Amino acid sequence: MTAPSTFGLSSEARNLHWLLTNLVEEVPGLLSVAVVSSDGLLLLSSDPGRNAEARTGTEQRPTGPKGSAADLATIVSGIGSLTIGAAKLMEAGGVKQTMVAMDDGSLFVMSISDGSLLGVHGAPDCDMSVVAYHMALFVGRAGHVLTPELRSELRQSLEAEPTGSTQ
Question: How many Cβ atoms sit within 10 Å of the Cβ of residue 144?
Fold first, then answer.
């Protein structure tokens, strides 16, 4: 992905972009990451394969679900909704995290304090404990700043980007 421009964004929005970039660069094996609002809208995304492509100027095969941050956001929103419904049905309290292990990768979904979700698609060889730890750090740092105003600003900044730059 071409890194989204943070020009003109508030300091809180720039900090969230920095936190997400840091998560992607610190954790080996991440294919794509998305922050999704409680109503299922993509707020923030990053794709290390696309970032590398932008830095080197070389074509790379898209990674993540169909190579699209919007696809990951849809999956994260759906899984989040399903697990929240299951927790209510089982009277088990709030959902903190969900992990789906697949033959060729893993999907991690973690709740953020305002109902938003952090979703991570990891490679088959990623260290699940490292991914979960860094996701928890992100949620701890980002959760208190995701106000309705900031969510609106992030959503508007994604809509203003040229097509394809959020993949």
Answer: 11
pLDDT digits (tens, 9 = 90+) for 90-108: 999 999 999 999 999 999 9
| Entry pTM | 0.79
23-36: per-residue pLDDT in tens? Answer: 989 999 998 899 99
**CA separation for the pair 166, 111 (Å, rounded):** 22
Hey, what are 45's tokens?
A: 């995304």
Burial of 34 (0-12, 13-18, 19+ CB in 10 A): buried
Could you report the per-residue pLDDT of 42-73, keeping only the tens digit for each? 998 875 444 344 334 444 444 444 456 778 99
Radius of gyration, CA atoms only, the chain: 15
Per the CB < 8 A criterion, the answer to whether 4 and 20 are in contact is: no
* Residues belonging to the chain: 167
- Give the whole-angstrom CA distance, residue 140 versus residue 130: 15
C-alpha distances (whole Å) from 105 to each of 30, 78, 159 are: 10, 18, 29
